[in-house]
Amino acid sequence: MASLFRRFYPILMELWIASVIFVFFVVRILGSNLGQRLFTFVRHRLGQ
Amino acid sequence: MKFLLPVSANVLLLLAAFGLGSFLRPLLPKSFAKIDRLSVIALGGFGLLGALLFLLGLVRYTPGVMLVLLLSSGLLSIRCLLQEMRGVNFHLILNGIPIIPASVIAVVLIITILGGFAEPVGDIKLDTISYHYLAPRVWLRDGAIRPVLDESLTAFPATPEVQYGALMAIGGQAAPELFAAISLSLILLLSAAAALRMGLDQTEAWWVAALLSAMPAVYRGLYGGMIDGIYAAFVLMAARIIFDAERPSHFALVGLFCGFAMGTKYTGLLSTALLVLTVVLFASSLRGILSRSFLLQFVTVWLVAFIVAAPWYIRNWALLGCPIYPPPPLFHHFFHIRYFPQEAYLRLHMLMSAAGRGMGRGPLNLLMLPFNLTFHTANFESGAGGIGLVPLTFLPFCFRAYPWNRFAKMSALFGFLQTIFWFFTMQESRYLIQVYVLAVIFGVAGWRNVLRVAPRFGPVLSALAIALSISYGLFMIIAARVDAIHAVVSTPFAETRRRAEVPFLESFLYLNSESSVGKVLILDPIVPPYYLEKSYVKPLGKYGEQSLPGVSNPREALSKLSELRITHVLDVRSENRDFQVVPGDSKELVLVLERKDQRIYRVVLQQN
To answer: Torsion over CA of B9, B12, B13 and B14, rounded to 10 degrees?
Structure first.
C-alpha cells in the first residue's frame, strides 16, 4: 500500500496543482467581468 | 516639499525606532541571526516609541515634544546601526539576491512609496478617515491625547496612530500614508527571518517575502493608516521569540511584544493567551507545566505585557468608564459606560458581528475555508482581497518532507489556533495576516517538496501557479493604488479626486480658510471631521455616541451655542437626515455659505 502511494504521490501532486490552476481560471478569470465580456465577444463572433 | 517632508518624517521615525530598539539588544537570545536582531530592534523600537509617545502625549502631544523625542532617539540609532552592521558582508548579500522575487518586492515597494505621497481622501465609512487619521489630528490640535468622544473607535489602543500624529506634525497630512512602506518592509523582513528559522534557505526566504508582498489581503492591512500589518508583526515577533525562549530575559522580551500587540488592538489580549496556550500544549508533562520555572516564565510574559499595555486600558477606564471601549456586550453590568448609550453600543456590536460573518461559521464553512479564502474573497463584507494560490496549492505537500523541528510544529499549532479563533469571532481577511505569513512559509516548503518529488511536470505547474498568484495579486494591488499614484503625478487629477471623494468639501474649505471660525458645531453624524482644521463639537457620533452629556439630538446642541462657545454651525443634508436648521428661524444664526446639501451659519450672540 505504502509503495503504491509512493508511486502515485507525484501524479497526485501534479493533479492537485493543475486542478487549483484550473479552478483559478474558471473562478477568477472566466468568472470575472473581463471573462464575461470575453465570453460574450467570442459568442458574438461565432454567431456571425 | 510635497515629497521631502513626508520622506524626512518617515526616515526620522525609522531612525528613532532603531535608536529606542537598541535598548532591547541585551534581552535578545544569543542564537538570533543578524536578520532576526534587525527585525526585533526595528519593530521593538516602533512599539517603544508608540508607548512613549502615548505616555508623553497624555500630558503634552505637541510637535516640539515629538521632535525632541525623535531626534534624541534618532541619535542613539547611529551607534546601534554601526554596531549591528559590523561584520555584514554586503557584497555577498547583494550577489545572492534572486532576481524574480526581489523584482516583485521592488514593484510593490515602489507602488507603496508612490501612492504614499497622495493626500488621504474618502468619506466617514472609511476607517482611515473616520478614526485612524482623525484621532492623531485632533490630539495634535488639542496638544494632548484624549479619546475623541464623537468617534468611539478612537478609544482603541493606538500604538501606530500616536506615531501617525508625529508623522503629521513633521511631514504633513500625507506622511502617515508613506509609513505603509516601512510597515511593508518590516513585515517582509520579519517573515524572511521566520522562514530561515523554519529551515528554508535564503532564496526560499526571498520567495516568502515576494509572495507575501503580492498578497492583496496582507497589503490591505498595511496602507491607508491600517494597523493590521503592524499588529500581525508584533504577534509574530512574540511567537518567534517565545518558541526559542530559554532565559527570563527572553520571556520579558516576549511580554514586551505581546504588550505592543495589546496596545495596538484588543485582540492582542487573545493572541497572547493563544501563544501561551501553544507553549503549554508543547510542554513535556503536566509536572513541567506546574513547575516553578515554567509558571515564572508565564508570569513574566503577562506581567510585562500588562505593564506595557496598561496605560491604554487605564486611560479608557478613567475617562470613558470601561477599559475596553467601545464596550463588549454584558460589560455594562460591571462598568459605568460614559458617552455611549447602551442601545447604541449594542447596535455597533451587532454591526461588527454582521461584518465579521465573512465565510459563515458552520463546520462545512470551516472545511471550505482554504478554498474560499483563495477563490471567494468577495464574501468578506469589505472585500479585503485574496491570499494568492500558494497556500492552497502547496500547503498539503509540506507535511511529508518538511523538517518538522519543534519551532515549526509550534508555529503551525499557533497558526491553527489563531485561525479557529478568527473563524468563530471576526472574519475579516486582514485580521489573519499573521496566519498568512505562516501559511506562505509552509507553502514554500511544500513547493520545495514538489520540485523534489515530482520532477516531471511539478516544476512547470508550480511555476505557473506561482506566476498566476503573483500576477493576480499585483493586478489587485495596483488596481487599489492606481488612483493614489495618479493623484501624486497629476495635480489636476488630485483636485478631481479630492472633489469627488471628500464629502462637503466646499464647507471644509470655507471653515478652514475663514479666520473668524473658532469652534464649529457639526450637526450631522456622517460629516467626517478629519477634514476640519478648526476645533469642533459633534454632539452625535455615527454609531450613536453622545459626546455632550445631556444632549441627545441636534436641537438640544443648538440651544447651547453660547455655553459651548460655538462660532459657526455646519448643517448638511444626507441620505438619512434633512437640514436641522431652517434659515431665518433663529436670530442667533446667520447663513454665510450655502452649497448643494450643505449650509454654514455664523453664530451671532444675543445681548441680554
So the answer is: 120
Q: B360 in a domain, yes or no?
A: no
Q: What is the pLDDT of residue B123?
A: 94
Beta partners for B594?
B599
Does residue B361 sit within a domain? Answer: no
Interchain CB distance below 8 Å, B465 and A17: yes
Low pLDDT (below 70) residues in chain B: 1, 378-385, 401-403, 606-608
Q: How far is CA B393 from CA B208, B445, B450, B469, B555, in A?
A: 14, 12, 10, 10, 59
Using the 3D structure, point to which of B447, B479, B511 is the last residue of a domain. B479
Pairing mode, if any, of strands B568-572 and B589-595?
A: unpaired
* Interface-testing mutation among A12, A17, A23, A33, with chain B (most B C-beta atoms within 10 A): A17
Question: Which pLDDT tens digit goes with each residue over A1-47?
Answer: 778 878 888 999 999 999 999 998 887 777 777 677 777 878 787 77
Q: Is residue B169 part of a domain?
A: yes
State the residue range of the domain holding B549: 503-603
A14 part of contact set with chain B, CB < 8 Å: yes
Interchain contact B464–A (C-beta under 8 A): yes
| Residues B208 and B289 placed together within one structural domain of the fold | yes
- pLDDT of amino acid B401: 62
Distance from CA of A37 to the nearest CA of B (A): 18
Segment B290-332, tens digit of pLDDT: 788 889 999 999 999 999 999 999 999 999 999 999 998 888 8
**Do B169 and B28 fall within a single domain?**
yes
**Residue B101 belongs to a domain:** yes
Give the integer Cα–Cα distance in Å for B517 and B602: 8
Shortest Cα distance from A9 to chain B (angstroms)? 8
B230 and B120 in a single domain? The answer is: yes
Do B336 and B189 lie in a common domain? Answer: no
Same domain? B194 vs B249: yes
Q: State the complex-level ipTM.
A: 0.86
Domains of chain A: which residue ranges? 2-47
Mark whether B154 and B288 lie in a shared domain.
yes
Are residue B266 and residue B119 in the same domain, yes or no? Answer: yes
- State the SS3 of B45-99: HHHHHHHHHHHHHHHCCCHHHHHHHHHHHHHHHHHHHHHHHCCCCHHHHHHCCCH
Q: What is the pLDDT of residue B384?
A: 53
How far, in Å, CA of B131 to CA of B128, rounded?
A: 6
Cβ contact (<8 Å) for A24 and B375? Answer: yes
Q: How far apart are CA B215 and CA B6, in angstroms?
A: 26
Total number of domains constituting chain B? 3
A17 neighbourhood in chain B, CB within 8 Å: 393-394, 450, 458, 461-462, 465
A24 touches chain B (CB under 8 A): yes
Query: What region, left, alpha or beta, does residue B499 occupy, with left being phi > 0 and alpha being psi -120 to 50 degrees?
Result: alpha
A22 vs B: CB within 8 A: no
Q: Are residues B245 and B228 in the same domain?
A: yes
Question: Could you say which of B311, B346, B381 is where a domain stops?
Answer: B346
- Cβ atoms B560, B551 nearer than 8 A: yes
- Which residues does B50 contact at the CB level (< 8 Å), separation at least 6? B158, B159, B160, B162, B163, B260, B263, B264
What's the predicted TM-score (pTM) here? 0.93
